[in-house]
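## Example record

The block below lists the input lines for one assembly entry, exactly as stored, with component labels intact.
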Amino acid sequence: MLVPTVVLSGIGLLSGLGLALAARAFAVETDPRQDRITEALPGANCGGCGFAGCGDFAGAVVRGDATPDGCPVCDQETRRLVASIVGLTVQDRAPQVALILCQGGDDVAAKKYRYNGLASCASAALLGGGDKACGAGCLGLGDCQRACAFGAVEMMPSGVARIIPARCTACGQCVAACPKDLIKLVPAEATIHVLCSNHDRGPAAKKACAVACLGCKKCEKSFAEDPRIKVADFLAYIDYEHVPDDPALAALCPTGSLVYRGAAAPAAERTSS
Amino acid sequence: MKFSGGVHPAYHKDTAGLQIEAMPLLHRYVVPIAQHLGAPGKVLVAKGDRVARWQPLSEPVGFVSVPVHAPTSGTVKQVAALPHPLGRPMLAVEIESDGEDRPWEGLAPPADWRRLESAELRRAIQAAGVVGMGGATFPTHVKLSPPAEKKVDLLILNGAECEPYLTADHRVMLEQAAEVMEGLGLMMRVLGVTRACVGIESNKPDALEALRRACPPDVAAEFTLLETKYPQGSEKHLIYALCGRRVPPGGLPMDVGCVVQNVGTAVACLEAVRDGLPMTERVATVTGAAINVPHNLRVRVGAPLLDVLAHCGGVTPDVGKVIFGGPMMGIGQFDMDVPLIKGTSGVLCLRDDEAARFEGGPCIRCGACVDACPMGLVPSAMGLIAERFRFEELGDWHVLDCIECGSCAYVCPSRRPLVQHFKRGKAEWREILDGRRAKAEREAERQSAAAKA
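Predicted structure tokens for the full assembly:
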């Protein structure tokens, strides 16, 4: 009993010593600042910064290949901390949230053909842009959901994706994943949105989807001289910096493509924090 | 020589005995500007313009670009994004016919191809808007302009027509044999080659005989009856079957000294030079169990699908799918307002029970697709990778060599949508390659900047 114990412990001690020596002899020199930055970062390795993960991004910041505010996920405090580690300062940035600019589920939007291929939006989009009659519509096969590292995208039963604002970190992975370019990052405090991306003329847009923006300009005209919502190419655009927090504005829209998602909206629909 | 792989689908060449019939003049045509691979031309007409038959509606922009021409005389109703066989609306010219079918005065005078230089012939072929009529619609004058360092010594005339159901090329070879062979001679002159091979599948011996009889004495052509096997008409496989040369991965036929042209293209080239006529019509097979009166139709480019079907007695009530092209590689249509274009070799109308809609199952590793793949790829492995979105691994499996012939999906007992996986996979892999190239360029730029500093 004694002999095996001693032999095994001896082997263990010798191996440990070998490892300790090897660790010293072959140590990889890293900038200590890189480790401190990695520690400060969220650690989700989402790739929203464009690098392979948090460690890679930290290395890039230290080398000067990335700016300290390059992490779209972390809050202002963390950004300042990261900047201070490399002796820089960062500008304050308004928090953002992703928004899917389509609400054309199967209940309101027409389909042009029956799709029965691979359940991925990018694959469906190769077949004439997808099965939605609207050329700009959400295909509902969840590429954005798969791309999200934070579980912030939910697929509605109607077959259209929706962002859960409380979970969204604005990393932008869903923006890149959507083959229809339907996802945008918008200011988190914005309350009025145009949830449509269709540039067709009114009748064509209406035929394809009941909740499409028709380009009727009712919203644009509600502003006397200085429109904060402008219609260009049959689609309304919002000037997010100046549009008022006013539920009545959304009520003007005949199709419901202009929506109010602020504090006065039902909790499930709110996008503003 | 026989290539490995390939499949033997039921051929259904039921229309092989039907003479080509000219489609009567319609009162409306929709002519898409983009009917070829390459840059779409610049539109030359506007709403309200009067146009004559064969008048150019667009002009090419750049070398890999061809014009389109008016299929009849009439008035331009609109120039707008209209339904296109590829699935999304594209810029097209809608013409309301005036019934006169008045020819354009600006047509090139008839010429003798035996007296023209190859540059002049090439120019005439481009001006006539001739594209490959096998279905890929690559501009013909580009294929006939190999760069100087690529020595081409063999022109191959593709009369394989390996897609089931289609008989348009078969009828052209029977009824226009002399024109096909003259066209072949013309293209040989453009390329400056002295040797040509004609490859025809063994289910069309009459076509081979007709071409052999019609061959002019000054056109040196060899005739070969090939095994009837899909995809015998694929460029790479046809070349191998006829002369044993293997096109390298990622390469073109001209890398092994060959140029392949379809029989319909030969006729179009001849008409462009001999008669000065642009390409405004083609022969298309309208067939399938769900069409009342199958036809081999000479149809003007831009004829709306609905009118073509109506001319063939309409579709039966149990129609389930309408496909442009053959059942293996054709494109399903969902809008009956799309026009037939230069690349439309057929309109296949399948009954609902024939157009089975498969739910793909899991791969059972049986290897049937590996045996069937004519390119020697491993579709089972590539399908599993693509299904998991691990596109960066697809390069190791040579996904770009896939010719999308569908042999793998045809034999798959699990009904996996393999071709769809590979179409997506090819697009994603190309994007990955582009990204890497851009990154390498940026890196090189930075290093050279650093070296200067």
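The longest strand of chain A covers residues 96-100. Residues 96-269 of chain A form a domain with the Alpha-Beta Plaits fold (CATH 3.30.70.20).
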